[in-house]
Every structure is written in structure tokens, then in C-alpha cells.
């Protein structure tokens, strides 16, 4: 796939419903409690990120329903990167999840350095993007020459 094809494919990246997320986790912030990892885009990465995010969610004060939504959409976003953006060459998936630096809520970023592929007929699968749009309070998908980034956020962080 040459550069023109990559840009053209990126133009087909879907938008998700609602406003985009703003204000991201800042791993450099003092006392930061979150996840920041990067792995090769291989099938085992999905399981590794799922376990890491689950451990982070279990150790925090995040509402159980929101925690389950976060776990599910991280799984979907990482699976999409591994199966669709990076199937034919080496690339990586990065995850950053934690409290929003501007206060209030949590946010998650999943990015890859692969190539966006337009959606085809989903058949029995292929509904991950729709699921992300429904389960995250705010979400966006940005695709370009450098890869794809899925940004998701939720306003509530504690059970109560």
C-alpha cells in the first residue's frame, strides 16, 4: 500500500457519535495512577492489555459499570489494531489509561502505527467501533499516515 492509498483509506475512518474527548491522562503527573504500555501488535497483546487494564480497574475506585465498559472497549480497540491495522507487517499498539489530567473522569487512548482499512460488511463481527461509540461517554477515531488513535473518556470515576 503506497502513501496515497494510506491517506485515502484514512479519509474513510468513521466518526463516533457525540463530542470528541479532551484532556488526557498525564503519566508524568505526580502520583499518577494509570496504565501506559506498548506492545507488538500480535494476538497475545489483546490478552496482555486486558489483564493489565483489569488489574488497574480492580485497584481503583471506578464505578463497576464504567469499569466493565472500559474493559470491553479497550479489548475492541486493541483487537481492531491487531487484526485489521497490522496483519501484514510489524507494528505496535500503545495503551494509555488513567485519570484525566484536567480532573474529573478517566480517559483511554489506544493507538497503532498500522494502516486504517475502511469497514466492509460486518457480517457476524465488525461492530467494535459502534460499541465504542455507545459505551464511551465521548470517543473519537483519528486515522492518518502515522496510524490510528482511538480516544475514549468517561466523566465519573468513583462508585457512589
How would you explain this protein's 3D organization?
By secondary structure, this protein is α+β, with helices and mostly antiparallel strands. The chain is built from four helices and five strands. The protein has helices spanning 3-11, 43-58, 64-85, 128-135; strands spanning 35-40, 92-99, 106-112, 138-144, 147-154. Helix 2 runs antiparallel to helix 3 and helix 3 (64-85) runs antiparallel to helix 4. Keywords: Kinase, Serine/threonine-protein kinase, Transferase.
**What level of helicity do the residues show?**
25-40%
Q: Within the CATH hierarchy, at the fold level, what is the topology? A: Heat Shock Protein 90
Mean pLDDT: 78
Number of helices: 4
Uncertain ranges: 1-11
Distance between the termini: 50 Å
Number of strands: 5
Helices and strands, in order, run as HEHHEEHEE
Round the Cα radius of gyration to an integer and report it.
Answer: 15 Å
- Strand percentage lies at 15-25%
User: What is the overall silhouette?
Assistant: globular
Question: Which CATH first-tier class would you pick?
Answer: Alpha Beta
CATH architecture: 2-Layer Sandwich
Structural domains: how many: 1
CATH homologous superfamily descriptor: Histidine kinase-like ATPase, C-terminal domain
Label the structural class. alpha+beta
Strands of the largest sheet, in order across it? 1-2-3-5-4
Describe the largest sheet. 5 strands, antiparallel
Keywords: Kinase, Serine/threonine-protein kinase, Transferase
Protein name: Two-component sensor histidine kinase
GO molecular function: protein serine/threonine kinase activity
Domain Histidine kinase/HSP90-like ATPase: 42-154
